[in-house]
Specification:
Strand order of the largest sheet: 3-2-1-4-5
Number of strands: 5
Helix content: 40-55%
Largest sheet: 5 strands, parallel
Shape: globular
Strand content: 15-25%
Structural class: alpha/beta
Radius of gyration: 17 Å
Distance between the termini: 43 Å
């Protein structure tokens, strides 16, 4: 029985509630999916992917140091889940609730339907002060304060190693991502994020 931790934009170990929750329940399969619909959207280009790739490389190293590296796949989310479902007994999927665009929102709804169809529990944890179903501003305000006051999640000390191919973390050229002129870009990665915060 494995618990998939589905990484989206939350490419870190520190204060990652889905990772902490999954590790407390069993073996963890940390997963990131490079999705064609996302990387070829009009609001996405080389700049976004190179930042993400920095994060993926560092996150894989950090997770590997705990015992299980980040698994990276390229394809449509439901197709990847079908492949993993054939190879592994998935007990649950843990993820942060993403506040992205219409593409990622539709994808999240599709994953909810897929999990329901396969009798797999899908735990979505709020990642910031926004919660999608809430429309009442007073409730949003109350939730924001609760979220900001919560205790930080601690990363697991050990992750059992799974017999699975981690997959490549391809370059933007390999993925045919739209190029753009970049004179200077923000570097990605958890270490870089801490440096920026401390400045």
């Amino acid at each position: 029985m494995v618990h998939i931790v589905w990484y989206k934009r939350d490419l870190r170990l520190a204060d990652h509630q889905p990772l902490s929750n999954a590790a407390s329940h069993g073996e963890v399969l940390p997963l990131y999916v490079i999705e064609p619909d996302v990387i070829h959207a009009p609001d996405y280009s080389r700049r976004q992917y190179e930042f993400t790739r920095d994060c993926l490389v560092e996150l894989r190293q950090n997770l590997k140091a705990l015992g299980q590296g980040l698994v990276v796949r390229h394809g449509h989310m439901l197709d990847i889940l079908d492949e993993l479902h054939e190879a592994w007994d998935i007990e649950a999927i843990h993820a942060h609730e993403e506040t992205g665009n219409a593409i990622t929102y539709a994808r999240d709804l599709a994953v909810h339907r897929w999990c329901k169809q396969h009798n797999i529990v899908f735990h979505e944890t709020p990642n910031n002060g926004i919660i999608r179903p809430l429309k009442d501003r007073d409730l949003r305000r109350k939730f924001w304060y609760q979220q900001m006051d919560r205790k930080l999640a601690t990363p697991p000390q050990l992750l059992p190693t799974l017999d699975i191919d981690l997959g490549d973390i391809p370059s933007w050229k390999t993925l045919n991502i739209r190029d753009e002129k970049i004179e200077m870009r923000q570097m990605g990665g958890e270490l870089e994020a801490w440096r920026t915060l401390n400045q």
